[in-house]
């Protein structure tokens, strides 16, 4: 990271709620689920209660043996209490390691070994389910359950009333948080953040929110283990926004929740927004109050933005798309309106954030980088992580003279907009951009709820799709929608629940391609 790109401040996760409560203590956080850690909390908690829960949890973790700079892996069933635990760990000056509830047991065990005997905060559902019989005692310092009891584990419930501890503020450049990469390309990498790099990620997001004049209720359906969630709290809590924090993306449940809470701002993953397209015509009009939609995890299809913007009854609603990476945080962004969304090029990710991010394109073959000859996207960002834990050499191979190369391929337009075509590992010979195909076809076929193009057993481009209510695909409509790409193989239809996904709901393309190969082998044997 170049000195001009670094942040001059630190973001301390363990103090965010406490400081916000001093100004906005009575403001509400509404949940669509109960907290396993604090079941008495119910579905509404104030900022003051959130700060109290974090302080209380820190006291219990200290009583369990957690100390400054130690690693505390958090891998439990999905819920907002993941962030309460993470903030409490940070309050002690220890390092929270946020592991997705969706990670398989084999991956989690390997990551725990890499961490070198960390504390593990989990729950009985994990211990009695995927980790039954696993040698956790051999690879962890202590196993801690958030509620209930389990043989050999410490229960936080038994440590209620433990003496409170003064918060520990580490140097801004020391490890303060670990998250992991999406896992779309194998075992996730542990990404190490410091208070300074977290503040670097915070800056562009805070600037975006400062442009919003209304004091909106904000609905969040965001992976609790992604760095975006603690940053969302760091942006929203000090500004005193009422929040709606969601576990469940089910459209019917979302419709009822939003009809009751009337959010003006919704942030989620692109795939969740796709699921919510059907709410555009819902009788409860759950999207009528929404002025701003935002996604920071992946490119979103123009047709999705168009449908959701037109479901809003607010004047001039805006859909803001931000492109970033686990290692860097947000990199570029742009807004779309009712007039511009449908006609937008879905590959256009936006523009760099002045003072916070930069990007350039590097040729792969010595020729000029263009739409037809995409290059590597190299970036500088104030939020670039310190490295990969236990894999320094792997991280360093992607650093080129102060620039980070995330292995995405794209080009820059004359207007300066970054266009993302594919990840290099996902590119298919003879296909200009799998993502572009997906954008166009999803815009033409409303009956599709998902479409990904992956390499088949022979390297061919195979469209894998899901439909609304799992209805059979209309082959004539499919043929009409895909005439531009005669090189596509016959489509494979799957239930959307069968698609392998990451914590942020991205389809794991390499895993999906591997399943297609295994299926082909099984059919030929």
Automatic annotation (TrEMBL):
**Which PROSITE patterns does the entry mention?**
AMP_BINDING
Every AMP-dependent synthetase/ligase domain range: 18-389
* Pfam family for this entry, one: AMP-binding
Q: Which domain of life is it from?
A: Bacteria
Keyword line: Ligase
| SUPFAM superfamilies per the UniProt record, alphabetical | Acetyl-CoA synthetase-like (SSF56801)
Positions of transmembrane segments: none
InterPro entries in the record: AMP-binding_CS (IPR020845), AMP-dep_synth/lig_dom (IPR000873), ANL_N_sf (IPR042099), ATP-dep_AMP-bd_enzyme (IPR050237)
UniProt protein name: Long-chain fatty acid--CoA ligase
Organism of provenance = Streptomyces rhizosphaericola
